[in-house]
């Protein structure tokens, strides 16, 4: 019989080799898939909108660290000439500058409460329609009968106006003011006047109106409404950034289409505020047709809702005398909506003469964050009386309300802004670093206006309940002497859409107009809270700063700040390199371009290969209440950028994947070796027969060795195939190691095969040893009598435990190894299935091989159990016996399992030692359960 | 296979005559309780896909206390199968095995094991000792389940003396000859004061001298009231038996 036939006859041996070979093939296949997946994930997610961030030369820090999202500081440092030089560097596709310009403080409209006082179709109505040329008014016969939420007989009401704001955690009541008076349904009065008949709406007798304290107005009866002026809203500040709209569009791609109006804006010579203002005043004086109103009253390509606020400010500035010959129009693209959380509500109660509440009429409210458009608003900030109806539709297009957003020239200020400062805390296991924001001075937030409306004489400050908040920003250095600039809205943008275009995993901050929200995750006491996104403070000086409210160009920046073309006003330049393809293929070219730019004397950071990372920031000294008590905010998280994340993720995942591969095959090979040695030793009887036939010991050894080498040839063949397919040196190394382990086992077992086995000696001391008197001592005696096989099984179980522990350690270590960036999380999540499969394969292969090794003892055990059964040992006692045998082997294997897993883990993932040790214990336990259940 | 089923089928146990036939064994009347009784036992092995192999069919056997009964016949005639069934190590395909009048069908595995310890001593062909354990420990094996090892140690030594192995009690099976192993096995079967000794080919592969020693020991046990059921083709052993069954 040739060696191959003999090898195949040894089915158990064949099975062990087959299991090892299968484990090799499968694990190499899975590892190869994992490597492909790693490269794919990294390639797809490691290149954001730009590749290099250029900052002024004196910028601290270097690559490979965390980059906070505030890439604009307002302090500049880069000149337009340097920008041009960068654009001329070979390989630069886009160089998009960005700067923080200023902030603009605005006064919102005076809110109004409207109690619809609909009087039906009157002669005056027809006159209005005719006069305005309204063609789409509802025909006379379709007008509803007079209707009003107010009664014919005036009633007394108390109206309470309340404004409150919240940062998401703390709610502050800005004011809560009440006023009361008498209101009733208006009456239509027709009077003969010289030249005709006058029809007007008048308040009923006895109505006193409702007057709030200044600076609010009073009560006014109109054709359709009773309007009650409410306490004014606080001042709202918005930041403005400057970009090169053409370059910015190139940077953003399709998402940058909103910058087109800015790109078409006239140059500095076409922005004289007086000239532009006059042109639009001329248009205004021409009046509007109904068609104009319907189409939006466009002039010079801009809708009325944009140029109306500008004209209002233009007139106000002229009246105030603040407009000079140098005053310029500042074209802006403004954010849709504000991020401020400001709720304005009005509660209406019907009261008696003594002021007691008779009935709750209701409460109406609006939120500034949802209803306000910076610099221009399409509708007035009004609240309807509960139950009131809107009859404006009766007048068709003539019923459209167009109102301005600003009531006086915006106040341009540079009194804020630089980047927040942080101190880095301890690094966590996965490389994440906790930050602590460094407080600056106290600033007053939720500031109510100190303004004087036309009917006021003194600013009203009685409503103010100021709250102090730590400023985490330093003042921006002001530019030169400036003339009053006038903001002019050219278009709008959706901040969240821009943020979305910036990407998620490969997020790179654009610089001020892409929101980077803060999320509160722990309160000041360190307790976890339901994550809540923090809203910006009303002053814009706190930690949570809203994204820029407007974007202008560098001509606008120069006009606002009074700078010249030579001044270094550019805060940062985002450079995209003209290299197509993935991060892998472009990295060398990107590095070369970064080197060329750095040679110009600028600070460069290669941000290709970066990824978003949520940073925990501790915020102390956040608020100070009216009693001066200072409180901390807690811990917030914010999206920062982990530089070099792609490299880290790729290296860590590849290493982990390779470690899993090595452990899987290594573990399986070791157990196969133990199995081979045990199996061969069990064939001593065959050796004795051969010896009896006159074979020499060397011949007998060769006889068995040749048989075992068939297995080695099979392993070698499979190893060659998998190495050829994977083209991976690691696979080659691991396969070679597996083959070497098997060969060592083959030679060892052949050497151990003795044709003249000595009978196992009697117990030490002969009759002095303890008698077998229970299942435990029986099991111990049997294991001792067959100590070689027992040791082999124990070693196999130990290797199984060690492999399981080490595999778990690698899995546990993955999140730490790859870091805490979004790319890491994505990659780990995408690869978790493959890694788990690889680890499970390793454990299963080792478990199977261990069980096979244990089965070599099975015939002998079965024979013994038959004898014991004949001796009256019941099934329960035999089960006890099996458990004791497996238990003792398990206990013997445990130290090897634990020490092995700990040793391996100390090398690859020291922090996971405990879990690895536990996993090895668990693996041994699983073996114990399986082996005691299967041996029947 | 049984050559002629009609002549090998054991008939009902219905006579008080001692019978020695090829087919039926009627040993004693059954009016009173016997230590071991097989009623209408059929042993058939289902051979995966092949035709079933019937070893014995409708076999009856009743043994009185203090008697020795031989199952004689060629190898493969079913002697060992009957012994394992009688010892409760396997259950018959059909029929009933009774120990002191109690049917094994009404017992679970644990109860059978418990009753076997109290009633049956089984001696396998070749002795069937456990390697790694001394002769003394092998003898004491049946005492382990009841935790009586310490109490029975002296008795075990006496039994080993009785079978002539008092000086070999600490030797292991590999250090004993075939006859010695058989004697250790018989001593082991007697350790719990068994009432029925079921012995399979105790003298096979032994020389005459050792075979006679074994026969003497077995015969001696019957004088102590122990019933012996032995399978053998040793004519001398067959001759000393109180009754016999010849099997094809």
From TrEMBL, chain A:
Residues 453-478 are annotated as: Disordered. The chain crosses the membrane at residues 658-679, 700-723, 729-753, 791-812, 832-852, 886-906, 912-930. Residues 468-477 have a biased composition (Polar residues). The keyword Amino-acid biosynthesis does not apply. Keywords: Membrane, Transmembrane, Transmembrane helix. The keyword tRNA-binding does not apply. This is ABC transporter permease. The lineage of its organism: Bacteria, Bacillati, Actinomycetota, Actinomycetes, Micrococcales.
From TrEMBL, chain B:
This is ATP-binding cassette domain-containing protein. Residues 1-21 are annotated as: Disordered. Residues 36-248 form the ABC transporter domain. Keywords: ATP-binding, Nucleotide-binding. InterPro entries: AAA+_ATPase (IPR003593), ABC_transporter-like_ATP-bd (IPR003439), ABC_transporter-like_CS (IPR017871), ABC_transpr_LolD-like (IPR015854), P-loop_NTPase (IPR027417). SUPFAM superfamilies: P-loop containing nucleoside triphosphate hydrolases. The keyword Membrane does not apply. It comes from the Bacteria. One of its GO terms (cellular component) is plasma membrane. GO terms for molecular function: ATP binding; ATP hydrolysis activity; transmembrane transporter activity. Signal peptide: none annotated. The keyword Mitochondrion does not apply.
